[in-house]
């Protein structure tokens, strides 16, 4: 009976791929296998000193960094990020986070203690209704079987969007916008920072500056996409 009802609902309200809008079939969720195959996946989780990590050299002591795929304009990657950030498809972020988590499990370098999403300012969180990085982090944390923390790293300044800013403007826009509470919470931990897209890395750097108020920490960074 349950299977029959599901089939009837699929006929009335078909599940469509968020990228190509074709009907999902079988085990497909949110994105069809064809669109998934068109993503340009990285192998940075297996490559120490990769290009993402080099963006942070000299800025803070980065342990490891990776992204699931490369961000390219006018491609499936841009469509998916847009759906996640602006169209309310947060569950898709969790699913992609699980895929990212499975890749991290193949590298001993990502044996972390706590998963921390890049926070939104409370006003932006209220306006959007969800933090897309938190949903990605949820998928990663569940797959790695590690706790996720959203209480101890805070965005204290609501800065303007970074989208149309240059490298220096992004750094200037992000400086000092995060802080931590109860610094003892992170002491001695390997922290996995999770974002949606890494571009210049200014936001991640600002998070790291706040986290470094805690002693003896390691910081690794992951994102769905890197530009």
From TrEMBL:
Residues 8-43 form the Double zinc ribbon domain. It holds the Pfam family DZR_2. PANTHER family: DNA UTILIZATION PROTEIN YHGH. Belongs to the ComF/GntX family. This is ComF family protein.
């Amino acid at each position: 009976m349950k299977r029959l009802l599901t089939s009837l609902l699929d006929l009335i309200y078909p599940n469509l791929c968020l990228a190509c809008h074709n009907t999902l079939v079988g085990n497909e969720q949110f994105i069809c296998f064809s669109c998934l195959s068109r993503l340009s996946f990285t192998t940075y989780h297996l490559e120490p000193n990769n290009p993402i990590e080099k963006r942070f050299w000299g800025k803070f002591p980065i342990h490891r960094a990776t992204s699931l795929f490369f961000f390219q304009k006018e491609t499936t990657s841009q469509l998916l990020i847009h759906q996640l950030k602006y169209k309310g498809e947060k569950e898709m972020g969790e699913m992609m986070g699980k895929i990212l988590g499975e890749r991290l499990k193949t590298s001993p370098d990502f044996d972390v203690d706590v998963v921390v999403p890049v926070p939104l300012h409370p006003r932006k969180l209220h306006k959007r209704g969800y933090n897309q990085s938190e949903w990605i982090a949820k998928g990663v944390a569940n797959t790695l079987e590690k706790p996720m923390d959203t209480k101890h790293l805070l965005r204290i300044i609501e800065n303007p969007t970074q989208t149309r800013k240059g490298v220096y403007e992004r750094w200037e826009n992000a400086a000092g916008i995060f802080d931590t509470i109860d610094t003892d919470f992170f002491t001695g931990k390997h922290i996995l920072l999770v974002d949606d897209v890494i571009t210049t890395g200014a936001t991640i750097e600002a998070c790291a500056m706040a986290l470094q108020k805690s002693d003896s920490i390691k910081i690794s960074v992951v994102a769905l996409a890197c530009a």
